[in-house]
């Protein structure tokens, strides 16, 4: 999962680096478009045979075979940055204006359960422990939590205040916060029943060993931003980010080994396709594969050099890429 936005090189800046742009049509329904599948898409997820992808102008599409895509009914037109399905029916998406959407029919229709256009910030990732308990993270250290399936949200860090309908500055460094700064929080990844990892701007890395109740800062091997994080088990984790940086830890983030990638393109996502294949995507057509759980990688840029934000695996094991050019099947990798 990744924090993303804009058009090619600009999408990263719009969503992660500035995190200040908001849509004037925040509360207007997304418009059905025959070009939605070729528009800028920033994230995707799988739930059983169904794939769900999200992106610009509130576009959400779903497919049961990775080939035929249907545009969902969505109540907003803001840039959507991340999506997670808890099961085949229930899922959530987040985006600009602190928007959080929920689906209960496998991604076909979506309900707006949270927004804060006055805060002028995007949420960048979302994760649920079960159908009720989950977290949404985003710009300026924003960390929201819910215990009722998304009906209500509590701000645990990066909160903002509303004075007579006008937005005030983010209220950072809350007294009960475990976060040490106001850097953007870009990606959250589970690593077993109780362990979670959180990666963000300026090299920040956090770990929770109690299901997200408390967080501890980890030593970071790089001061640039992270956009992708993948946990192979409770102790083995990979993080990827700016300038082709890829690091691997085997002790739950206490120490790190750099993995040579052969590219300086920003890396955006990591996905375990199957036990023998890991895929890492990036800008400028960057595509990396690993056959040894990330101990080494092979670099093979896509000919069109389009920016890739995420990779999805269909039920039959084929791979679908989403990014600057919308939805693209990937062939030639087994």
Given the helix and strand composition, which structural class is it? mainly beta
Shape summary: globular
- What percentage of residues falls in helices of 4 or more residues? under 10%
Strand content: 35-45%
Within the largest sheet, what's the order of strands?
1-2-3-4
Number of strands: 29
SSE ordering: HEEEEEEEEEEEEEEEEEEEEEEEEEEEEE
What does this structure look like?
The protein is an all-beta fold and 334 residues long. It has one domain (9-160, 169-330): Methylamine Dehydrogenase, Chain H (7 Propeller). It has 1 helix and 29 strands. The protein has one helix at 9-18; strands at 41-47, 50-55, 60-63, 70-71, 80-85, 91-95, 99-103, 111-114, 123-128, 134-138, 143-146, 154-157, 159-163, 166-171, 185-190, 196-200, 205-208, 216-217, 226-231, 237-241, 246-249, 257-258, 267-274, 277-282, 287-290, 298-299, 308-313, 319-323, 326-330. It has a 4-stranded antiparallel β-sheet with strand order 1-2-3-4, with no helix packed on it. It has a 4-stranded antiparallel β-sheet with strand order 5-6-7-8, with no helix packed on it. The protein has a 4-stranded antiparallel β-sheet with strand order 9-10-11-12, with no helix packed on it. A hairpin with a 5-residue loop joins strand 15 and strand 16 (196-200). It is globular, with a radius of gyration of 18 Å. Mean pLDDT is 88; it is low at 1-25 and 163-175.
